[in-house]
Amino acid sequence: MSAALDNPYWMPFTANRDFNQQPRVISGAAGHWYTTADGKELYDTFSGLWTSGIGHCHPKIVAAVQEQVATLDYCMGFQVTNNKAIELADRVTALAPDRLNHCFFTNSGSESVDTALKIALGYHRARGEGNRTRLIGREKGYHGVNFGGMSVGGIVPNRKVFSAALIPGVDHLRHTLDLEHNAFSRGQPEWGAHLAEDLERLCTLHDGSNIAAVIVEPVSGSAGVIPPPVAYLERLREICDHHGILLIFDEVITAFGRVGKAFGAERFGVTPDIITTAKGLTNGVIPMGAVLVRDEIYEAFMQGPAHMIELFHGYTYSGHPVAAAAGLATLDVYEEEGTFAQATALEQHFEDLLHAFKGHKHVIDVRNFGLMGAIEMAPRDGLPGARGAEAHKRCFWDENLVVRAGMDTLQFSPFLNSDPDEMSRSFEAVRRVMDTLE
Ligand code: PXG
After folding, report:
1. Is the minimum distance from the CB of 223 to ligand 1 under 6 angstroms?
2. CA-CA distance, 169 to 131, in Å (whole number)?
3. What DSSP letter does each residue of 164-211 carry, written as one string?
4. For the CA atoms of 242, 248, 253, 259, what is the dihedral angle to 10 degrees?
5. Is the CB of 64 under 6 A from ligand 1?
6. Does the beta carbon of 409 sit less than 6 angstroms from any atom of ligand 1?
7. Mean pLDDT over residues 177-181, rounded?
8. Is a pLDDT exceeding 50 seen at residue 428?
9. Could you tell me how many helices (H) and strands (E) the chain has, helices first?
10. The ligand 1 atom nearest the CA atom of 108
């Protein structure tokens, strides 16, 4: 077998054959830097994968995990539970918007999304509106890779192969990215609020009384950072209220400081009925997700004989004590270090660094919100994704920089506690690569 094919490790969302020609393997990390086995140090411009906002191997989280794993490694999460899960549910709901006072734990963003969709369907049925079964997502949305999330998601390559197995009864709003009208917007674009009316059209088509829920990322992440147009989220909320539809914000990326507040909902002043989270909940240290729901939704399930299970759903590792301990330590650090305020203070500098790429020969758009940023390059003729992939590799090998490329869009998720000069230097390095890129 060729060297490119004999690696037993099948990597996720990776061009495996290309990777195996020149593997990029990290073996250590501290703070804002990764290390490799041969002693190379690389600056991480993506905070893990939007996960690790307060830096890698934060001593407080490391200590909490070490202690927990030696105290209670695991216990059954059904019918009994552990003290850390209870404590974390308290702490997370205390940070959440009004009335989102109940928390269901998962192990990932994908599981959070599928859990939220199931809760939405169960909620309507429990209230005698079992006809509300339709789900609405949005083009370019990313809601993980499980069947529910994939179906409401709108990233074409993630859906294409599985087209016949997508769940039925799903429609999509149009996405809000239109370079003709909103290229190089700083923060939220002025253009595009009218696209929320797509929801009203779908309510006319199907009758709103058949629709269970609408799910959107407040700021699309994976698709290359697409902030919501001014007044767009507000309008979605209004239409949902009018038709009795649940609004789900997928905040797997936007929660826990990425947009300067505990939740994007708070930053945008729009309160959804359900919020999905993961990533920053534990700073990425142990996999964990959480779904936060409004009181009315939880209460709707709490009927029937009290000895009966109300929601036939859960994961072996829901509320895992070690993950919960990591979550508790993470929330402590956010509070003690003022992480969300640190993130807010970095926003302007970050925006300026990104938008300095306007006018670069390859650049067709720059987008940002909070500490989420994207530089979109034009694709090479007939080879979409090639320029981005090369930029990623050149950053790694030539500039000791880990940069995420989604096709030809470079994405940035700086640490919430970044050093501004380090941030500046990372963009100087990106520019050196882009200047010499074909
Ligand atoms: N929802 C959102 C909004 C996400 O960003 C998920 C759900 C799924 O989470 P899990 O933990 O199941 O992966 C995500 C994940 C990128 C990128 O390049 C982002 C994610 C995953 C892969 C790539 O931006 N986010």
Report:
1. no
2. 12
3. GGSPSSEEEEPP---HHHHTT-SSS-SS-GGGGHHHHHHHHHHTGGGE
4. 30
5. no
6. no
7. 97
8. yes
9. 16, 15
10. 11
